[in-house]
Amino acid sequence: MSYEFERKQRIAIVGGGPGGYEAALAGAQLGAEVTLVERVGVGGSAVLTDVVPSKTLIATAEATSAIGEAAELGVQFFTRNDAGRPVRPEVTVNFTAVNARLLRLARQQSEDMKSQLIKAGVRVIQGEGRLDGPQRVIVSTGGGAKSTDFDEIDADTIVVSVGARPRELDSAKPDGERILTWTQLYTLTEAPEHLIVVGSGVTGAEFASAFTNLGSKVTLISSRDQVLPGEDADAARVIEDVFTRNGMEVLSKSRADSVVRTPNGVVATLSDGRKVEGSHCLMAVGAIPNTAGIGLEEAGVQLTDSGHIRVNRVARTSMPSIYAAGDCSDFMPLASVASMQGRTAVFHAMGDAVNPTELRNITSNIFTNPEIATVGWTQKQIEDGIAQGEIYKLPLSSNPRAKMIGLRDGFVKLFARTGSGTVIGGVIVAPRASELILPIALAVEHRLTVDQLARAFSVYPSLTGSITDAARAMHIVN
């Protein structure tokens, strides 16, 4: 009697960010032989220099803001001077301690993720990975050219998850001291006295918001007529109003032609000749995928003009054996999307059940203060006739819980299909909007109607009560 043993499917993953990490876990779960190659640390830039440290910094900024606003709720902080009289203490931020904490958390998260991979049976290699055709990865594990410095991985499936890096301009070259990218902020020993932020997209707006709350003077240079161009116009208007009320200077319809160092800081020269002087400058002008020089085109993988990898809804590239996940792909650049792409890629490659990623179901969040969370179709798409829907907006100022905790800014907005009342999208502007958006995301995912959403019991009083109130106001009369 003879026995034939089927060889395990081999999966090689280049890049250990959220997409690569989830792909590796999915492959191990399905019984594949998985090798993950990462040059810096598991978690990639998302964990080490981007999402984890930036949101940790923002958490500190929120705590600072909460202390400043506590007086409105009747909470007073004071100490006594030598004469025994109460004096109000100054709220300060130990920036060295803040950065030490966030970098420690990032490293710990990376180590935890690596431990999870090893526990699952994934082989983790630290090195530089590049493709050698559609089914082989070459890994440089050392600095020399000796054969022992390289490792070859043959694979049935390759998942590329190499991420992206901050875009740099020759006219405003980051030096890591005064002119900074968002990966270089965590070496500062104190909050900038005057931070100039070039770029009012998500990254620029988030850091501008955070450093304002941390006590820095902030000037935000926006080339568009509103901050957060492309986002919900009502939400962007609320955020800009909060920015200016908190003392931020927003220069709309302005473009920075150059940023250079001075003896004591930086100066940004605008296209109209104006000059803005500050102590530091954050360049937040987009990102570039890390796809150059890793053998993609030679392996037959199609790239966009911007260098992103073309993928379909199951994260497959133009080569059947190669998938791509995360910011290096031409899909939506979110860590949650990268994770979903990584899982979907492996499920598809191994013949497991798979649901192609639907852009309309993706929830995103902007971590300003307050936050902006969105899902589904947008108001602009409805107004432009791309989608047929009704719009209802409910300010949080009418919510009893919002009044109790002193909220002045924000709203809940729902979009429902005309006729059927099916929820097709929504926007929330509020503290912790990232947590509040989930009920709307579930409604969009499962095609619930506004009446079905309204029938869910929300706690009274709660901010989520505004979601059911908005749904109730959109009741479909039968």
Automatic annotation (TrEMBL):
Keywords: FAD, Flavoprotein, NAD, Nucleotide-binding
Gene Ontology molecular functions: flavin adenine dinucleotide binding; NAD(P)H dehydrogenase (quinone) activity
Cofactor(s) needed by this chain: FAD
Cofactor-binding details, from the entry: Binds 1 FAD per subunit.
InterPro entries per record: FAD/NAD-bd_sf (IPR036188), FAD/NAD-binding_dom (IPR023753), FAD/NAD-linked_Rdtase_dimer_sf (IPR016156), Pyr_nuc-diS_OxRdtase (IPR001100), Pyr_nucl-diS_OxRdtase_dimer (IPR004099)
Keyword NAD included in the entry's annotation: yes
Binding-site residues for NAD(+), renumbered to this chain: G199, S200, G201, V202, T203, G204, A205, E206, G286
Domain FAD/NAD(P)-binding, chain residue ranges per copy: 10-342
Gene3D superfamilies in the record: 3.30.390.30, FAD/NAD(P)-binding domain (3.50.50.60)
Record: residues binding FAD: K55, G129, D327
Name of this chain's protein: NAD(P)H-quinone dehydrogenase
Gene source species: Galbitalea soli
Lineage: Bacteria, Bacillati, Actinomycetota, Actinomycetes, Micrococcales
